[in-house]
Amino acid sequence: MSIFHSLYRRILDAAYVWREEMRQVFRDEGVLIFCIIVPLVYPILYSWIYNNEVVHEVPVVVIDQSHSQLSRQFIRMFDASPDVRVACYAEDLDDAQSLVSRQVMKGVILIPSDFAEKLCRMEQGTVSVYCDMALMLTYKAIYQTAMAVSQKMGAELQTKMSSNYTAREDMITTRPLDFEDVPVFNPQGGYGSFVLPAVLMLIIQQTLVLGIGLAAGTARERSRYGDLVPIHPAYDGIYRIVWGKALCYLMVYAVMGAFLTLVVPRLFHFIQLAHWDDLLLMMIPYLLACVFFGMTVSCLVRYRENVMLIVVFVSLPLLFLTGISWPQSAIPGAWQGVSWLFPSTFGVRAYVRMNTMGGTLGDVAPEVRYLWIQAALYFGAACIVYGHQLRVSRRHAQERLAYLRKKREVRAALKQHHATAANLRTNN
Amino acid sequence: MRYLINIWTVAKRECKILFVNRIYFCCMLIFPIFAMYFFTSLMDEGLPEDMPVGIVDLDNTSTSRSLIRRLDAFQSSEVVAHYASVAEARHAMQENEIYAFLYIPKGTTDKLLASRRPKISYYYNMSMVMGGSLLMKDLKTISTLGSAAVGQATMRAKGYTPEQIQAFLQPVRIDLHQIANPWTNYNVYLSTVFVPGVMMLFMFLISAYSIGVELKFNRGKEWLARADGNIVVALLGKFLPQAVVFLLLIAYYEFYIYGVLQFPHVGGWGYIVLLAVLEVFASIGFGIFAFGLMPSLRMSMSICSLWAVLSFSLAGSAFPVMGMDAPLQALTWLFPLRHYYMLYQITVFNGYPLLDAWFHLVALVGFTLLPWFVVHKIKNAMLTYVYIP
User: Fold this and answer.
1) Are A323 and B131 in contact, with CB atoms under 8 Å apart?
2) ipTM of the complex
3) Which domains, from first to last, does chain A contain?
4) What predicted TM-score, i.e. pTM, was given to this entire model?
5) Where are the alpha helices (DSSP H) in A56-135?
6) What would the pLDDT profile of A137-161 be if each residue is shown by its tens digit?
7) B129, B299, B325 ranked by CB distance to A194: nearest
8) Are B120 and A33 inside 8 Å of each other by CB?
């Protein structure tokens, strides 16, 4: 047999495995849920949850014990800001606390009775801010607004005190060193724009691993001996099986990946700065790494449901390990090491830096390189585990064959025995 | 009495199952404890410290250098690199080398001394909101201090007292009270919701799984026979050992975070215990309900895992529920973790009276009672359904 012929055979076998796997994906409702429905529905749901991006008009209760023109000015300015709203007034702290404890208000502003007096005496006036720390975003909104208002009011008081002649002099008095605050890549500080790209990439990995694991579990349960690899001439080589299965999932996730990385951000108007060619060159190793990672994991599960028990809960730790919600520089070294095992770590970093931060492929070259390394290593791992599975199922097949042969022999022997016995009887 | 004996026999049978199948051991003890150590050790610092910051100092004078030194001394920032231009610094940001940078243009000190109001700028990466906003705080403080230093020097030269200088530079002072978490500790803030969330995930999954495998391994009839055909007894017996294990698990978690890590718990141990009990029973209730709704192992487990993963977002601890659209706000009521979080933060974290969280208490009790609606469906499934792989 020529080399070309055998190569052609192998490709045909791989294509057969590919088709069988594809059929299974669409027949198995568990796989269908995780490979098709979840990647379609979850991103939309998450985008919807975070679509408002920031919290505005956080309700705050005010205790004005000063009752002065200055205190009222502070409250007016505070209320006029976009992030908070003065929702009600209280007499004292107990009164205000009961509102906070009933979750009606998120914070308290207390202006003491000597506020105006002190300011007029050219002393420092104090405004107390009490924040409910159960929610960091509302705390930030209240505290930052209070700070901004106090600085604004302070600047006004400074100009009054310093008897300047021109507006330019006023500006120099209040802020001799001017500064500009430039948030970049996500200027409004939106929560969705920050967390969603990471979630999208993570969904790709997690649903792939779940889908492959469930499909493998089903294959085992269908087989007589709980084998992963069916007994069939096409399933006769490691590479054929691994590539055939991988091609199936790559095909499904070429579509899903495009939907997640291109369509969803556009639907919800999230930041989208990546060029399609850069994105493609990053997604290819990411998908390959995820598929082979999923195939390696799938060999470890005995029953199809167990994969859910293992894979689902790691989603949240994996999200934290990407360094998006908790800065990468603050992740302890041991956990950084663990994070290197998962494609999502590098996939999320590369995607966020290209899509949200407008980087090019060159900027994420290390990540892409790690993804290729992971793809190669997990391909090797998948080959090893599938090789093992193949040997196991061959052994089972041989045992079965030997058993059947033996059965036939025994049967034939028995038959012969009976025949001779009958012969003997008739002869006698 | 007969019921009690039946419950006991079913419970004994369940204990045997829990011991034999390793997956229970993993999912009820190993994985949740792993998640607990993961989150608490990951955020051990409380607030991220020494995040990398770059500098573009084109002025290069003692004034600008002192500004940079002071920035470096802040808790969250660490000056790691100097760049020759803003473009280079931005590039470094895209390569993840720095999270923010301070730009001091040429002639800043000259202009400052000549009262010509120079302008410095700082850029911070908001594609990671937490790091970005912490660095923003440092950079803003340093820039404000730069202004204040000038005013201070002038006023000192004119002979003002320190009190007068202070009062002039900052006429209105904000006196901040961060109730119950004065350190802005993110470990306290996140680990107290996400770790119970992960535990809830396992309680959902294990509850649905443990009923489902009875069907899968065709033991459903035998299980019911032990309980004399009474499904309520069968369920009580089945989940008694599991509830005990989960309660012990959560007791360990509470002991670890409140006893060892000393997380704030103004409300005291009474509420902590109440919360733990409610969490376990509500989650098991939800898991049984999910199975009863769709008496198939894979469907019920899929529902449980999808629900549990969504609840991390819809609990509203990271992004507040008040910021979501109205339909989603109503949807959050269907997630046990949401009620757990509310009950936790009102009673345990802030120490407010239980009355203010009554709704969430009732909701968790409601989740505990949910299986009531589906017990007959479960019984029917056990007696008639056949598992198809």
Assistant:
1) no
2) 0.93
3) 3-50+188-383 (no CATH), 58-174 (3.40.1710.10)
4) 0.92
5) 69-80, 93-101, 115-120
6) 999 999 999 999 999 999 999 998 8
7) B129
8) no
